[in-house]
């Protein structure tokens, strides 16, 4: 199994930057896609960015040009660099890992809070 732990959240002013980290442990060799999601209280989780083992990335339209997802497979860590933060980026950010194959499982971290003030 895989365990994911997020860190790096905090309070930042609009226009500022934060870098989130997701440390993976366990059977990390089985993980293909890593992703960042975010959730505001009372709403569903929104996919923010994904990255494959090979480095292919995708982003939600709302964060394109501002956020960058990256992955260090040797360290078992995924990052989300967030620049030009806006108040609407305020949310709990979650890390997700998906195993290879159609039978693969999904693993979730417990989240880290990002608050952007205006």
Structural class: mainly beta
Question: What summary fits the major beta sheet?
Answer: 7 strands, mixed
Strand tally is 11
The average pLDDT score comes to: 95
Uncertain ranges = none
Shape designation: globular
Radius of gyration equals 14 Å
Describe, in plain words, how this protein is organized in 3D.
It contains no helices and eleven strands. It is mostly beta strands. The strands form two sheets. Strands 2, 4, 5, 6, 9, 10 and 11 form a seven-stranded mixed beta sheet that branches. A four-stranded antiparallel beta sheet has the order 1-3-8-7, with no helix packed on it. The chain starts with a strand and ends with a strand. 29% of the residues are buried. The model has no long low-confidence stretch (mean pLDDT 95).
Produce the secondary structure layout.
Elements: E1 2-7, E2 10-13, E3 18-26, E4 31-39, E5 46-51, E6 57-59, E7 67-72, E8 77-82, E9 91-99, E10 106-108, E11 112-117
Parallel strand pairs: 2-11
Antiparallel strand pairs: 1-3, 3-8, 4-5, 4-9, 5-6, 7-8, 9-10, 9-11
